[in-house]
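User: Study the shape:
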Amino acid sequence: MKYPLFNLILTVFLFWLTIQIGSTYEEYLSYFFILTIGIVHGSNDISLIKVLTTKNKPTNKYLVFYIVVVLITVIAFVLYPTIALLFFVTVSCYHFGEQHFHNQIIKQSSVSNLLFFSYGVLIFGLLFYFNSENTSLIISELTGYTLAESHFFWFMVAGMILTILFYVLNFKNLKIEVNHFQEVFLILLFAILFKLAGLLWAFAIYFIVWHSIPSLMDQIKALYGTTNKANLIKYIKSSFVYWLISVLGLLILYYATTYFQIQFITLFFAFLAAITIPHVIVMYFLNKN
């Protein structure tokens, strides 16, 4: 698979922008991109479920299921925050790796699934290690546990070793057009970017450029058969209501930060977890098919 030139150019541009702007502007841009492209890419799951099942079936039961999963996630973060956070990071690791590699794999198997998960561990390991102070603060506010920089370092090392191992084991299962040098280059680029950018901005760049945009393209193709401007507009229109509900939910959380006496960024990541879990389930079956 050849990576779109657009993604590389955009990443380099945002890398340059990181050097030019201050942390306050990074934060504003992060929230803007995540609240627009980031949330939109996960706002059409009900339509995707219909594609995976029977297109003519009513969406009510799917909507109820979706809301129940979101509520269970929220309740889990309130009652069992440590378990909920571990579960969120685990499924997010798999989800990020799946989006990166699923089009590069000839046949999906348990070994390829381990590659997906390992690559996600590496990405999060780089992100957490190079922003260990802020990451530790968020984890502490959510769970009460304080992690040292060494914990994030070994998490990153584990991701690196496992990714190399399962990349080698999947070597014959990779499509012939996979550029192995480019894969290494991207990891180095992410490492430098995560080192220079703040936690939220670093997460936003990867999440938008290398996850949300490719996922949007995959979803539009699954829903409408091809990716073009007209189908992109259709996608945005059909996802608008769910996007609006998500943003309104986040606004409620924003005003609740005073009551909880917690940083908004901490609740923001908990909010992302709540809307991510059901999306991961949908995308797993979509990519599998």
